[in-house]
Amino acid sequence: MDGATLSEAAPKTGYAPWPTIEGRLLPRQLVDVFDKGEQAPVPILAGFNSGEIRSLRILAPPPPATVTEYESIIRDRYGDLADEFLRLYPSSNMQESIWATTRDALYGWTAERLVKKQTSLGQPSFLYYFDHGYPAEEAAGLHAFHASELPYVWGML
After folding, report:
1. CB under 8 Å to 47, separation ≥6 — which residues?
2. What are the two backbone dihedrals, phi and then psi, of residue 78, each rounded to the nearest 5 degrees?
3. pLDDT for 110-132, tens place per residue?
4. C-beta separation of 54 from 145 below 8 A
5. What does pTM read for this prediction?
């Protein structure tokens, strides 16, 4: 089957393109593989973009209706860490803060963890944070969206 046909048919069957633990190539969850130091000992470059969630908004929860509700939720969930959380993700712009928390939880934490785990194997490892936009991206409200760094990585616009 050619790639295009496969790519179009897979979602119709309910298959999502996520790694499948099958015991040989992927013996267990990737987090567990890295925690056990069983990943390939190779140099790595990993990172994330400031606007990751701008093009993946479905990943973020909707903002609470009010600032009071937002701050109450944060205080309930984060306890003695709530003040620091609100300093990093303030209620002054809840939408931006929610996009940033989602970005940091899904992309920032995983990229940083990946780099730390490779470094612990003695491998050269590099973490980047991409925060560059171009005019069309800015006009669409997508500053540094998911994968927008790839033209710069590959040297082709």
Report:
1. 111, 126, 127, 128, 129, 130, 149
2. -110, -5
3. 999 999 999 999 999 999 999 99
4. yes
5. 0.81
**16-68: per-residue pLDDT in tens?**
777 888 888 888 988 899 999 999 999 999 999 999 999 999 999 999 999 99
Whether the CB-CB separation of 50 and 130 falls below 8 Å is answered with yes
Report the distance separating Cα 78 and Cα 66, nearest Å. 18
Both tokens of 21, joined, read 């633990």
Q: How many CB atoms lie within 10 A of CB 134?
A: 13
Say how far apart CA 110 and CA 112 lie, in whole Å: 6
Number of other CB atoms surrounding residue 106 within 10 Å: 16
- Residue 105: which of 66, 54, 48 has the closest Cα? 48
